[in-house]
Amino acid sequence: MLVDIEQDGIVGHGEASMPPYLGESHETASAFLSKVNLKNIPNLSTLEDVLKEVDALAPGNHAAKAAVDIALHDWLGKKMGKAWHELWHLDPTKTPVTSFTIGIEKVKEVVRQKVREAEPYKILKVKLGGDNDREIIETIRELTNKPIRVDVNQGWKDKSHALKMIEWLATMNVELVEQPMPKEMVDDCVWLKERSPLPIIGDESVVRLPDVRKAAGVYHGINIKLMKCTGMREAMEMIHLARKLGLAVMLGCMTETSCAISAAAQLSPLVDYADLDGALLIKNDPFQGATIDNGRILMPQGPGIGAVRIQS
Ligand code: MG
After folding, report:
1. 51 C-alpha vs ligand 1 centroid, how far in Å?
2. Separation of CA 185 and ligand 1 centre (Å)
3. Where in the chain is CATH 3.30.390.10?
4. What superfamily in CATH does domain 2-82 come from?
5. What is the CATH number of domain 87-309?
6. Distance in Å, CA 146 to ligand 1 centroid
7. CA distance from start to end of the chain
8. Is 209 exposed, middle or buried (0-12, 13-18, 19+ CB in 10 A)?
9. Residue 4 phi/psi, 5° resolution?
10. C-alpha of residue 127 to centroid of ligand 1, in Å
């Protein structure tokens, strides 16, 4: 869902991306956005206050809130004539390399085809947690020795099995493992973290700011997504808190257009790992913004979030 905010003849673009499993939809987002009334706010430059009020309108609605947050950041950056990475004093050349996701496939030939399609990218992200995990990794390794990041999406329910798998993955040039076990199994996640030869990153476990503190001691790092955490404002706070707590930081995404990906790119010089391939996975991207250059995120030009609408 695309959202525009306009004041003083300046338009800010925002976006809500809503994977069904998180419970938001066009209906819920429309209902939430209909409650957001910025018309009575004389000066949208007071972004902190405005976003706090928007957050307080109703619980949940994280992606819908992110749409407002991104549009407001875009609007304010354009008003000031600066990109957010400039306003935050970040070096636009220090963007990370992004991974490119290959979905779970039963058929060896499909895995091979996907590895070939991922040729331009330096790091592969592979979803495991099915019954042919080893076969998927071995099939990829027949074709390439590129670093792999594994995302289990809570798929391993037994800690000993999870440890055995991670120990094996460590011998296969795998860099890290995301959310190996269900988020509710905290004690088992702690047990696993203490023994794992690879960094373990919490994703489903870490939604908003209060979850960052809970993740310390349970994971080596966290995966921050704008659509989970209500946008750029809270993502920045989460990054700073994670650093204080000694946690590694990954910046991820849902399936998103170049609008929300460009917003995330503004923050990306601050993180260790990027998984910002959302716009590469869609055919009808209505925006131009952050791109990938030799595997690395190329910071978009222009003020605000740096995304330009190329079709309505
Ligand atoms: Mg994940």
Report:
1. 26
2. 16
3. 2-82
4. Enolase-like, N-terminal domain (3.30.390.10)
5. 3.20.20.120
6. 19
7. 12
8. middle
9. -115, 140
10. 8
Q: What is the pLDDT of residues 50-83, one digit of tens each?
A: 999 999 999 999 999 999 999 999 999 999 999 9
Query: What is the rounded average pLDDT of the residues 157-168?
Result: 98
Cα(153) to centroid of ligand 1, in Å? Answer: 6
Q: Give me ligand 1 centre to Cα 77, in Å.
A: 30
Please give the pLDDT value at position 112: 85
Report pLDDT digits (tens) over 129-159: 988 999 999 999 999 999 999 999 999 999 9
The burial of 27, by beta-carbon neighbours within 10 Å (0-12 exposed, 13-18 middle, 19 or more buried), is given as exposed
Q: Give 204 Cα–ligand 1 centroid separation in angstroms.
A: 7
Pick the more confident residue, 271 or 41: 271
β strands within the chain, DSSP E: 2-7, 10-15, 99-102, 123-127, 148-151, 174-178, 200-202, 221-225, 248-252, 273-274, 287-288, 291-293, 296-298, 308-309
Residues of the chain with CATH 3.20.20.120: 87-309
Structure confidence by residue, pLDDT tens digits, 212-256: 999 999 999 999 999 999 999 999 999 999 999 999 999 999 999
List Cβ neighbours of 50 (8 Å cut-off, separation of 6 or more). 38, 41, 44, 72
Position 43 scores a pLDDT of 85
The alpha carbon of 151 and the centre of ligand 1 are apart by a number of angstroms equal to 5
CA of 249 to the centre of ligand 1 (A): 13
| pTM reported for the whole predicted model | 0.96
Rounded distance from Cα 243 to ligand 1 centre (Å) = 20
252 C-alpha vs ligand 1 centroid, how far in Å? 8
CA of 11 to the centre of ligand 1 (A): 32
Whole-number pLDDT of residue 104: 67
Q: Mean pLDDT across the stretch 21-44? A: 92
